[in-house]
Amino acid sequence: MIDLHIHTTASDGTLSPKELIEYAKQKNLSVIAITDHDSISSLDEAISEGKKKNIIVIPGIEFSTEYNYKEVHILGYFIDYKNKELLNTIKSLKNERINRTYKIIDKLKQNGINISIEDIEKEAKGDVISRMHISNVLLNKKYVSTKAEAFEKYLGIGKLAYVERELTPLKAIEVIKKSGGLAVLAHPKLIDLENEKEFISLLAKNNLDGIETYYPGFSSSDIDRYINFCNIYNLIPTGGSDFHGHNRLTSDLNMLKLPQKIYLNMLNRLNI
Ligand code: AMP
Ligand code: MN
Ligand code: MN
Ligand code: MN
What is the set of domains in the chain, with CATH numbers? Predict the structure, then answer.
């Protein structure tokens, strides 16, 4: 079985690469992809730990982008994570995230909320600061009673402390393709698109390779719709749990029990 959407401590997951591989073994996974937000810093360790435990680790990433006031995540698989342009993009996204965090702290302050950069840094174990970490601080300091409330009131797109992003989906696809990878639209159902078909068609014309069709909470009619889009636009379906350790209690590793065939189709696509 395989799971192609996993976060570690490099971004907003709670397991280190080594812990993740041990857990993947327990969960009977033979192929996984590590897809941290805008980060590749767990990949070397995950791949070498994977070799010890006979688990294939696909080098991956999940880029956060924005399109028409919607949050769009683009997954990259089989990326050459030493590629210069990819590394430059990651470096500037890391800086953008730091600047964004200071702006969010300011906006929260204007709304009567006092949290510091140190509070947030304590939550972040890797090199990427995410709104997940900020929501943990808001929850711990009892400014909100659930993480969902933190996003609904402050951190979500268009909310009181939201800060725009610069990367676009088309640019993310371009960087992934230039580093030899496959580009996949992550959890399309969560984007809340007005015209999903038109958007997927646009990405497909700009070198998208696949759609994340299997994802926690997707209904069988969602899955059928995405398989249909894959057929229309010559894309491949992929899937994963979006595991974040105890930062996201609604998803667990290998909860979807996805077959090896999805991985084999990705390998075929790479050889085109
Ligand atoms: P960022 O990478 O900084 O854009 O932060 C986004 C991350 O916050 C996502 O990857 C999720 O892990 C988490 N997140 C986004 N929306 C919510 C929500 N409504 N409730 C809980 N966590 C969320
Ligand atoms: Mn996340
Ligand atoms: Mn995502
Ligand atoms: Mn994710």
Answer: 2-83+168-269 (3.20.20.140), 91-155 (1.10.150.650)
The mean pLDDT of the chain is 97
Residue 127 has a pLDDT of 87
Tokens 């090896």 — which residue?
260
Please report, for residues 6, 76, 91, 133, the alpha-carbon distance to residue 270 in angstroms, rounded to integers and kept in the order given.
21, 12, 26, 35
Q: Tell me the two tokens of residue 101.
A: 């965090």
CA distance 111 to 179: 42
Instruction: Among the bound ligands, name the one nearest to the CA of residue 13.
Output: 2
Give the pLDDT band of residue 272 (cuts 50, 70, 90): low
- The pTM (predicted TM-score) of the whole model is 0.98
Lining ligand 1 with CB less than 6 A are 12, 37, 64, 130-132, 147-148, 151, 244
Calculate how far, in angstroms, residue 58's C-alpha sits from the geometric centre of ligand 4: 15
Contact in structure between 198 and 204 (CB atoms under 8 Å): no
Query: Position of tokens 């956060």?
Result: 64
Report the nearest-CA residue for atom 5 of ligand 1. 131
CA 94/CA 90 separation, integer angstroms: 6
Residue 62 β-bridge partners: 37, 75
Q: How far is CA 227 from the centre of its chain?
A: 21
3-state SS assignment for residue 58 = strand
Residue with the smallest CA separation from ligand 1 atom 7 is 132
102 in Cβ contact with 118 (< 8 Å): no
The closest of 248, 7, 247, 34 to 128, measured between CA atoms, is 7
pLDDT digits (tens, 9 = 90+) for 131-160: 999 999 999 999 999 999 999 999 999 999
